[in-house]
Structures are given as C-alpha cells and as structure tokens.
Amino acid sequence: MDFKKTKYGRFMNKRVSSDKRYQPTEYEHAANCATHALWIIPSIVGSSLLYFLSDDQWETITAWIYGFGLSGLFTMSTVFHTVSWKKSHLRTVEQLFHMCDRIVIYYFIAASYAPWLNLRELGPWAWHMRWMVWILACVGTVYVFFFHERYKIVELISYTATAIFPALVILSMHDRDGLFELAVGGVFYSLGMVFFRSDGLIPFAHAIWHVFVAMGAGIHYYAIWRYLYTPETSQMKTSR
C-alpha cells in the first residue's frame, strides 16, 4: 500500500473499509465533476430534440420523462461531486446530496425504460412493467433513505436488479430494431460497475465509471432517437 501511495499519491488515496466512504484526491474530485458536468447541456439538448420530434401527446410525455431522468442524472452527480470537493462545514449538505445522487440513479433507470415501455409494442407484461419499474425506483429510494452506505454490496445488487428486471419485458418486442443498441449500452453499464467499486485500487476509478455511464446513456439515447422518434419510424408506426 505504501508503494501505491508513493506512485499514485496525487491521483489516488488509500482504499478504505467497506463501512467508510472513499475520499478522492483533488485530481479525482476534478475528474468526477468534469466527467458528468460535460454531459448536462448535451442531455438537455438531446431531450429537447425528442420533445420536438414527438408526434402525439404520449410521445411528448415520454420525452419529458426520459429527459428529466437523463439530465437529472448528470446534473445531480455534478452537484454532489462539486459539493463534496469544495465542502468546508457542509457535511450534512454533502450527505444529503450524496443520498440524492444515489436515489436519482434508480429514477434514471426507470426513465430510460419509459420510451420502450410506452412507445413500443411489447408482450402482455408490458403494461404492468410501466408502473412496476417506478415502484422499483421508489423501493430503491426507501432503501437509500434508511440504509445509505451501510450495505454496499446490497446496494449494488439493488441497482443491478432494477436495471435487469424490466429488460425481460423489453425482450418481448415484436419489432427487434434497437435491441442491439440496448444490449451494447447495457454492456457499457456493466463494465463500468467494475470501476464503481474500485476506488483506492484504480486511480480515477469513479471518473472512469462516469465515462462508462455516459457512453451507455449515449448509446441508449441514440437507440431511442433512431428507432422511436425519427420521422421514418413515425411514418412506419402510422402505416401499421
């Protein structure tokens, strides 16, 4: 561990026990802020594009839901990491934003599924999953409220279950367009989770996790834009 401190002192601090929160270095704090702040404006612009491409009220509502989830993720993450970096006597505020940062991930997952559950013809469970995915997000919120940072493995499993369970319905799509992009985006999220738990083992681990999240979100956004909101897709849906 001394070797790590000597070699990576500016870029990584000592790993902490599972019941404590890792304290990033100044460089890691800056990277954590930048890697998600960079995507706030693009996420807002991209969400607005979906809104203007909407052909009916249901598409408009879905664009708003997805847009709030996408931009909310990057915004809350940036706010939390900024407060964490610049804190002085703001321990309570930092803790609050950390909880919000964890909670918004659940709603981002639910919002990411909304376009597929609302706009694509799915199997018989689709209607139930439209509200069940939000119940999962609410359950995650309650968990964070009562058990924040206590059981990190349970937290990781909870995020994974929330992300995978609705996918079982998505696989029932009669129209398979977009399924490849959904799978690729899921792979990026899954690979990023390796870094999510690697603070103190890999320099800039959390910032790398942020990059994987941004890439996964970008691929999923492309699939939603390309297969659910483009004029060509709208014409195909109208002709059916």
UniProtKB/TrEMBL annotation:
Topology with respect to the bilayer: Multi-pass membrane protein
TM region positions: 30-52, 64-83, 103-119, 125-146, 153-173, 208-228
Protein family according to the UniProt entry: Belongs to the ADIPOR family.
Binding site for Zn(2+): 81, 206, 210
Stated name of the protein: Monocyte to macrophage differentiation factor 2-like
Localization terms from the record: Endomembrane system
Gene source species: Aldrovandia affinis
Pfam families to which the protein is assigned, alphabetical: HlyIII
